[in-house]
Amino acid sequence: KKELPSIDISYYISSTQLPASSYNKGIRSHWAIENSLHYVKDVTFGEDASLVRSGNAPTNFSIIRNIAINILRRMDFISFPQAIRMIGGDIGRLMETLEGNSRGAWMRKLSLIRYSVTLIQIRMEKYMKK
Description:
The structure is a single chain. The protein has five helices and no strands. By secondary structure, the protein is an all-alpha fold.
């Protein structure tokens, strides 16, 4: 079947009086950021396919994914899958990349956390499939 075009209507309330074009620009930029973040989290990190669903674990993993995404963006990687292939599976190369970066010690700690959590997540998902 051919999908028909649709129109969605959204209503917003604001105490600020601006031209409609200003609201349009702000709303579109907000959703562009939201959509790109969710796309990266789902496609690159497989968030929707994750089997981690109980307690605080889903929220914690989501936070860790956000941290990983922000670190990779600050390191100027254009492609997240490429970045993960280049540095995600090799802790030595990951550390070399971070040490060459002037972001500081906190980034190295966060990257180690991301690397460790990714390994834990992979193990947990394998365990849950059994």
